[in-house]
Amino acid sequence: MSQSITFQVQPGGSLRGEIRVPGDKSMSHRSIMLGSIAEGVTHVRGFLNAEDAMSTLEAFRAMGVEIEGPVNGEVTIHGVGKHGLKAPTKPLYLGNSGTSMRLLSGLLAGQSFDCTLTGDKSLESRPMKRVTVPLAQMGAVIETQENGTAPLHIKGQAGKLKGMHYDMPIASAQVKSCLLLAGMYAQGETSVTEPAPTRDHTERMLNGFGYPVVREGSAAKIDSNGKLTATEIDVPSDISSAAFFLVGASIAADSDVTLKHVGINPTRTGVIDILRLMGANIEVLNQREVGGEPVADLRVRSAPLKGIDIPEHLVPLAIDEFPVLFVAAACAEGQTVLTGAEELRVKESDRIQVMADGLQILGVNAQPTKDGMVVQGGGNIGGGEVDSHGDHRIAMSFSIAGLRASAPITIKDCANVNTSFPEFRQLATQLGLNLSTL
Ligand code: S3P
Predict the structure, then answer these.
(1) What is the pTM of this model?
(2) Residue 320 a catalytic site member
(3) How far apart are CA 377 and CA 359, in angstroms?
(4) Which sites bind phosphoenolpyruvate (predicted)?
């Protein structure tokens, strides 16, 4: 883990200008995973050079894949084919990255070698039974800690996995992707049904590599008969990183920001829908399709926000954006209620508790509930010292809160901003946020 970093944001200001935020984290992970097991050389542009995606990249290097870069977002992957990965000589350390661990557990369950997946304190406390239980039903052999957490010891079951149908009890793209990746190595068909739509980058990218995944209603189906052929991947900017500025420019007076080349896959745009329901002024410009994914420029200008009851169907479509949406709620007129979001309690931190604690320190009436939060907006955001609990999205959300605060906000434990958005401070400052590190 990098050394401890404290952010301090001076109150007020506005955001103005045009920026391109870094590449999409979910797609960056998948580009390495699929490029590595493809046949031929895959070129990736727009790759996210941040700790989480690098954890995936290093894991595949440790399994014998030659990967060049990233240099200016460009990565070249010399694919080894579906059966070409080699046993790593030591445990694969995946840092803070839940996506790496959950997707890799599926991909590695059907290999011809054993391996161990480890991570930092946060990752080793996150629930892994959601993947190890269905994988075991497919014949995987994975040893976890007593409470189902990592380290995960995976005993390769080459040729022994069996396809199955799985009805996911939670709406999780990580679980869905894990099982689809395992399904590429299983006998017969593997199908996964989701209770609500979740991000579909795995399915889209598999198709981009020429590997068939069939979508039927709420089910995605795969079998082991396909093959991945190397391709070109253009990773758009991450809407989850853009979200900080969608909220920031909405709540700060006199703001006008354009975010270039943002991925607007409909399974990711809940943040735009929720902000628009709150009254935000967001224009989706220049829509186009890049490598099988919809992309646009987003222009956002200051607008008076109002509190809303957040429709539950939008929750999985905005799952990573709630920390900053709580800040929007604190600045809105009236009450905002979030329900149906208990998943937030098992992210990089307990995002319900940690955000409610921080908002309360800043004088906001934010009441955590079992599965969400009730935020009374309209009051003032004060200054004070809050703790991000090592969670990148909490650190960036409280930085954005500074735009409407009446005194400086100090945010502790911010080194993990590097897991998803190392350029945050530089880009936020460029737009007008008065943010420094202590
Ligand atoms: C991700 C899926 C989401 C999200 C995470 C990335 C992915 O997790 O929170 O940041 O890349 O598949 P869940 O699928 O567990 O909700």
Answers:
(1) 0.98
(2) yes
(3) 11
(4) 25, 98, 126, 174, 351, 393
